[in-house]
Amino acid sequence: MKVLMFGWEFPPHITGGLGTASYGLTKGLLKHDVEMIFVVPKAFGDEDQRAVRIVNASDIPVNYKQKHIQDFWNKLTYLEIGSNIRPYIDPEDFAKIHEDVKHSIKEKEHLILGEKYSFSGKYGKNLMEEVARYAMVGASIAAQHDFDIIHAHDWLTYLAGIAAKEVSGKPLVVHMHATEYDRAGESNINTEVFGIEQKGMQMADKVITVSNLTRDTVVKYYGIDPSKIETVHNAIEPVDKSNLQVQRSVKEKVVTFLGRLTFQKGPEYFLEAAKLILEKDDNVRFVMAGNGDMFEALIKRVAELKIGTKFHFTGFLKGADVDKMFLLSDVFVMPSVSEPFGLVPLEAMRSNVPVVISKQSGVAEVLTNAIKVDFWDVEGMADAIYGLLHYDSLSQMFIKNGVEEVNNLKWEHAAKQVKAEYESVLKNNKN
């Protein structure tokens, strides 16, 4: 079986869980004899290609005079945005959105001028233009390669998946890692992103969601037929960190939040819980690792709570720095308001760190050895953290059982489920 897979990022060049999940899935699928062509907008040359063949969209010529590309291009809505938007991350407010559906292909030639386009692979103001161009590349690749099925990860690649389907006639599977409702909250929905998500799922032969929480959102808000949606929970790769060492320079216990500083991740609840804990025990330090649109507001709130001497902001961490942060941590907290899945608690547990997670997360569906609280229950969150910090037997129980649990959450198991969905779609298409 050969899969044409579209993804916006691939390790080591990632900004969140989307790239990590895509990479884990490809490694898992390889173990089940699935061959993959993985298309990214920009390849940097240092991607791990042991499991997949990486195709750099910037290297693919697009002949816009071909009829199938013209037909698809004329169906596209061209959007121009004046501020950043990120996948699997909250979108900031759009400064400007421009829609153009009336112009002919010749009036849009400036978007696809020449045979190739050099993608930035980033999430800047030209993102929507790049999404549209990427769809054209998707059509070109589909016309040139042999494959059995198409798999598109998250909304940024859905148009490419649709284009590939229309050109090749092959079935399309879309993977919903996070919805616009997760990223923005119900009151700040970007209708253009929502429209792409909805269209991608409507055109798909199968929709894979990363949790039942996400599945319910897709059914409720997007009106997608439940019969075409299947949940496949994310997983985690075991790693050997025996050679990783870090010197602890503080005597206090350390409680860590690691994620984007956005509404979705609930960082403000972490601050309030920290205040309650410090009122009982000032022998604790709190670390907030990440960046985002709430950064300045959170710093201000720390000052208002007068906990600045016990609170640390590290900025965005990645790679070995994340691993080192876990080695320094006594408790990890994920207080997300809306979390489609949440890979970071698995990474923490893998590093022998007990975790407190919100019930409003997909990972709560698969974890037994984690303390689960409602994101808004600050007192309950504080009690859970305090208990793990002060009762060694409790902490050690969660550490021991947690490591065993995450070691069984392997990507090869998730990939087996995904392959079964591929086979089901291919069988239905033959009938």
Q: What would you say about this model in short?
A:
This protein has 431 residues and is of the alpha/beta class.
Write the SSE topology:
Layout: E1 2-6, H1 17-30, E2 35-40, E3 53-56, H2 67-75, H3 127-144, E4 149-153, H4 158-168, E5 172-176, H5 180-184, H6 191-203, E6 206-209, H7 212-222, E7 229-231, E8 253-258, H8 267-280, E9 284-289, H9 295-305, E10 311-315, H10 320-328, E11 331-334, H11 344-350, E12 355-358, E13 371-373, H12 378-390, H13 392-407, H14 411-430
Parallel strand pairs: 1-2, 1-4, 2-3, 4-5, 5-6, 6-7, 8-9, 8-11, 9-10, 11-12, 12-13
Domain tally: 2
Order of helices and strands: EHEEHHEHEHHEHEEHEHEHEHEEHHH
**Helix fraction bin:** 25-40%
How many E-type strands?
Answer: 13
Distance between the termini: 18 Å
Short descriptors:
Rossmann fold; single chain; 431 residues; 2 domains; alpha/beta
Q: What would you note in describing this structure?
A:
The protein has 431 residues and is of the alpha/beta class. It has 2 domains: 2-235 and 411-430, Rossmann fold, CATH 3.40.50.2000; 253-407, 3-Layer(aba) Sandwich (Rossmann fold), CATH 3.40.50.2000. Helix content is 40%, strand content 14%. The chain has 14 helices and 13 strands. The strands form 2 sheets. It has a 7-stranded parallel β-sheet with strand order 3-2-1-4-5-6-7, with helices on both faces. The longest helix is centred in the C-terminal third of the chain and has 20 residues, at 411-430. Residues 77-114 have low confidence and may be disordered.
